[in-house]
Write a structure and sequence with these properties.
This protein is an alpha/beta fold. Helices cover 23% and strands 25% of the residues. It contains 5 helices and 7 strands, in the order E-H-E-H-E-E-H-H-E-E-E-H. The chain has a 7-stranded mixed sheet. A hairpin with an 8-residue loop joins strand 3 and strand 4. It starts with 10 loop residues before the first strand and ends in a 9-residue tail after the last helix.
């Protein structure tokens, strides 16, 4: 009988983003670390920059189509223009019930050959895989025009154990 795999400590990095353009650039950099089978969970307040980050990911992955918020269609697939993995962009905000509703989207079928980005996925998609990247975007709330965002990236599972997320701060 095999011993269970040793749990991997989360890999974490934090950075500050001061403009939408920097958020998009973070997505471009992050795309270089992603590969087929990766699940990226984005969380943050409305207007935090989740879709802007995903737009940069799409550019970096070289996918077809404008990356826009899939709030009303729930999920959009952006095929690769250059042989890389497609980007599946999901907005789980309107989905209330955990993995059952998410299963209707067949994300588990797409996961092995796609990069899946789920906005508002906490408590809904963790069961898809033990290996995931959680991106939390914090911003000032209330009546403010403050563009500063504090981004925490946490890599969970064996896939992320050896990934240097620190390259994203360079």
């Amino acid at each position: 009988m095999e011993a269970p795999a040793a749990p991997h400590n989360p890999v974490e990095t934090e950075l500050t983003v001061t403009s939408p353009e920097q958020m998009r650039e973070l997505g471009l950099k992050l795309a270089k670390l992603l590969r087929a089978g990766d699940l990226v969970m984005l969380s943050g307040e409305l207007g935090a920059g989740k879709t802007t980050l995903t737009r940069g990911l799409g550019e970096g992955l070289g996918v077809r189509g404008a990356v826009t918020s899939p709030t009303f269609v729930i999920a959009r697939v952006h095929p690769s223009l250059g042989g890389g993995p497609p980007l599946v962009h999901v907005d789980a905000y309107r989905l209330g019930g955990g993995l059952d509703e998410m299963e209707d989207l067949d994300l588990d079928v797409s996961l092995s050959d796609s990069v899946i980005v789920v906005e508002w996925g906490e408590g809904k998609v963790e069961e898809l895989t033990d290996d995931r990247l959680q991106v939390r975007i914090h911003r000032a709330v209330g009546d403010t025009t403050d563009e500063v965002r504090h981004v925490t990236l946490t890599g969970l599972g064996e896939r992320w154990a050896a990934v240097d997320l620190g390259v994203l701060t360079a």
